[in-house]
Design goal:
The chain contains five helices and ten strands; from the N terminus they run αββββαβαβαββββα. The longest helix is centred in the N-terminal third of the chain and has 24 residues. It is about 35% helix and about 20% strand. It is α+β, with helices and mostly antiparallel strands.
């Protein structure tokens, strides 16, 4: 049986996060003129992220400054995910292949963040993410650190019991993608359903404007 309290908390959190992001579009001034984007919705003003520290699959720390210089697409997921996560990473790999010709120094990145540290080791998330595209960054952390990081991006996740056996669970998480700008700030959102070609074209256009 699903834990109704957990589900209620998750639904409230999702609604709150969605409301915060929506409010930024509705009540804030429009962003300055830039490239005509097909699927990326830029925030009126990029949002600075609070300090965070995630552990990458190569065992190095992923901290805010390391994301500078690149547009970065952040996606929450977990390796035991049966559908949304592999589908999303496969779609993003199509976009990644389209921007492979861009200079490595500014080439957009995809960051897969596992929100299931109980089952996903750093080695596991690296193998999983690289199975879709070799350039995908993979990171995780303990639950408190993940909660702080995801909250700063207006994203949520929650562990939800599954099945009748003790210890069985799944992870409910935001399906939206968050875009960080070359200064490591939250700059935009990409909502499903995803269009890999449109994502690639938008990121290529944004890359050109930031050089």
């Amino acid at each position: 049986m699903f834990n109704r309290t957990t589900l209620l908390i998750l639904l409230v959190a999702v609604a709150t996060a969605a409301g915060l992001v929506t409010a930024q579009y509705v009540f804030a001034p429009k962003p300055p003129a830039g490239p005509a984007l097909k699927t990326v919705r830029l925030l009126p003003t990029p949002r600075e992220l609070p300090p965070f520290a995630l552990r990458q699959s190569d065992r190095t720390e992923l901290m805010p400054g390391e994301l500078n210089g690149h547009w970065t697409v952040v996606f929450l997921g977990f390796t035991f995910c049966p559908d949304i996560c592999p589908t999303t990473l496969a779609q993003l790999s199509v976009a990644q292949k389209r921007w492979e010709a861009l200079p490595e120094s500014t080439r957009p990145r995809v960051l897969f963040v596992s929100v299931d540290p109980e089952r996903d080791s750093i080695e596991t998330i690296g193998e999983y993410a690289h199975g879709f595209h070799k350039d995908t960054l993979a990171a995780t952390a303990d639950v408190p650190a993940l909660e702080k990081f995801t909250k700063s991006l207006s994203l949520v996740f929650a562990k939800v019991p599954q099945g009748d056996e003790p210890g069985q669970y799944t992870i409910d998480h935001s399906a939206a993608l968050v875009l960080l700008d070359p200064k490591g700030r939250m700059a935009g959102v990409i909502q499903p359903p995803l269009d890999p070609v449109a994502i690639a074209e938008d990121l290529i256009a944004l890359d050109k404007t930031s050089r």
